[in-house]
Design goal:
By secondary structure, the chain is of the alpha+beta class. The chain is built from three helices and four strands, in the order αβββαβα.
């Protein structure tokens, strides 16, 4: 019998492995991304204090479009970069959470870069 691979469990293993190597500080917070089938979420986290500095997602009331596509991910990246500028943040560490750097994850990163974040 062929075993079925649990893709989410594999992603979580990759995420834990990467999180052992990167960490966010107050000067350079971690840009964490979570992707679901219908929405995408991004937040800037200071791991030293354990605090979320700012966050943006497609579930916000200001966001009107469908959140499960590349265009929405780019808009969320731009929105997060705008909020980060208001908080005085220009440099971040990108944490893709074990997802492949492709599609919506790449679009969010590109949007954040266009908004002025450096990573």
């Amino acid at each position: 019998m062929i075993k079925q691979i649990n893709k989410n469990a594999s992603r979580i293993r990759r995420h834990k492995r990467v999180r052992g190597k990167i960490s966010g500080t107050a000067d350079r917070p971690r840009l964490n991304v979570f992707r679901s089938a219908q929405h995408i979420y991004a937040q800037l986290i200071d791991d030293d204090k354990g605090v979320t500095i700012c966050a943006s997602s497609t579930t916000e009331k200001a966001f009107k479009d469908f959140g499960g596509n590349v265009e929405a991910a780019k808009k969320i990246g731009l929105s997060l970069a705008e909020k980060a500028k208001k908080a005085g943040i220009t440099e971040v560490v990108f944490d893709r959470s074990g997802y492949v750097y492709h599609g919506r994850i790449e679009a969010l990163a590109d949007g954040a870069r266009e908004g002025g974040l450096k990573f």
